[in-house]
Amino acid sequence: MTTALDRIRVGSAPDSWGVWFPDDPRQVPWERFLDEVAEAGYAWIELGPYGYLPTDPARLTDEVDRRGLRVSAGTVFTSLHRGPAVWDATWEQVGRVAELTRAMGARHLVVIPSFWRDDRTAEIVEPPELTGEQWAHLTGGMERLGREVRERYGLDIVVHPHADTHIDTEEHVERFLDATDGDLVDLCLDTGHYAYCGGDSVKLIETYGERIGYLHLKQVDPEILADVVANGVPFGPAVQRGVMCEPPKGVPALEPVLTAAQGLGVDLFAIVEQDMYPCEPDRPLPVARRTRRFLRSCGA
After folding, report:
1. How far is CA 32 from CA 39, 67, 106, 247, 283, in A?
2. Residue closest to 185 by CA, chosen among 108, 98, 105
3. What is the helix (H) or strand (E) element at residue 217, kind and residue range?
4. Xylose isomerase-like TIM barrel domain spans which residues (predicted)?
């Protein structure tokens, strides 16, 4: 018998509809995303790239309310390892997203570190390993971000380990967690990205459970991943090869992850993110329906 995962709040995101950018002719229109995410059976969504969904709170509230949806989080990209010089530009972006996130009644801001490899061209733009000074900038900057976002907007930041960023592997994730204050900075554990980078999500939840503030659910195809790793394929092209696959066809198995998360005894969002940019416009809805059905079979 499946255990009821009553602490897990399941949702989806524009990413599951192939949306990576605020505006791109290869992406579905935002109205279609909202229609279809509701039709697929999800109650919660993320804002996605700022500017993809309407940024006027009154209009967006009307659009999500009409479809029976609620917003769980906004997302920002940061490069805080570069030091104090980037703070003002970072805060300008964060402020816009945080304001809309708060206005939509959400409580979380997902923070993604900047890529060391260009996601479109695959050009390596920075060394994949940070210096000690850059680590200090990164951890100190995230703590400052967590403090100021909470003070000004009442939101909690959850930092998202991500392929081709400086917070990716188990070693880097643990180093980041050990060097940051758990009262200011929690983690958005993305099961797909963590597996992509060789990490074990269940082990992370069991070891650093008090730092898990949010979940992104996705899986990787082990065969495609093996080829990606062997040939040093960047994340963007790897997604186009189908490295992130529809559950339950990949790894990690999501049921043990959800069970471990339920065991933390706190309410957690678990937002499906099926990376597939770019994709045919008719592809996301059937995948989303099947994924929602699968998660219900796990008790979520």
Report:
1. 10, 11, 22, 23, 12
2. 108
3. strand 212-217
4. 34-297
Q: Find out whether 152 and 184 touch, Cβ atoms under 8 Å.
A: no
Residue 291 backbone dihedrals phi, psi, to 5 degrees: -65, -40
Q: Determine the topology of domain 8-297 in CATH.
A: TIM Barrel (3.20.20)
Distance CA 245, CA 221 (A): 6
Kindly report whether the peptide bond that precedes residue 247 is cis, defined as omega within 30 degrees of 0.
no
pTM of the model: 0.97
Sketch the domain layout of the chain as residue ranges: 8-297
Please tell me what DSSP assigns to residue 3: P
What is the tens place of the pLDDT at every residue in 69-127? 999 999 999 999 999 999 999 999 999 999 999 999 999 999 999 999 986 777 899 99
Tokens standing for 185?
A: 């900075």
Cβ pair 270, 294 in contact under 8 A = no
Instruction: Please write down the long-range contacts of 54-60, taking CB distance under 8 Å and 24 or more positions apart.
Output: 54/30, 55/96, 55/100, 57/100, 57/103, 57/104, 60/100, 60/104
Q: Which residue has the tokens 């958005």?
A: 188
Q: For residue 29, what are its two tokens?
A: 């229109």
